Amino acid sequence: MDAQTVLTIGRDALILLLMLSMPVLLVVLGVGLVVSIFQAVTQINEATLAFVPKLVAAVVVLAIAGPWMLTTLVDYLRRTIESIPGMVA
Fold first, then answer.
1. What's the structural domain count of the chain?
2. From CA 65, how far away is CA 53, in angstroms rounded?
3. Contact 24, 61 (CB under 8 A)
4. DSSP 63-85
5. What pTM did the predictor assign?
6. CA-only gyration radius of the chain, Å
7. How confident is the model at residue 66 (pLDDT cuts 50, 70, 90)?
8. Sign of CA dihedral 55, 74, 15, 80
9. Which of 26, 39, 74, 75 would suit a FRET pair with 45, their CA atoms being 20 to 30 Å apart?
10. Topology with regard to the membrane (predicted)?
11. Would you state the torsion angle of the CA atoms of residues 46, 51, 53, 59, taken in this order, to the nearest 10 degrees?
């Protein structure tokens, strides 16, 4: 196994990490922006008002996108583990 192979595996893992985390992060960011605008307009500064909607949105996104995320992760791990004998030999 050479350095190029290690860097390729690391790059693929980072791209997969970004791809899997992006739906949750974007939805939580959007909900946080909407809640912040609502708090600024109404001048309500309650910490739970910002936390609870983000938590609910994250759970909903994970419920919807969870099977896709899990399938993608398992496929990546299977490909990586199956390629180990070719890398060592």
1. 1
2. 18
3. yes
4. HHHHHHHHHHHHHHHHHHHHTHH
5. 0.81
6. 19
7. very high
8. positive
9. 26
10. Multi-pass membrane protein
11. -170
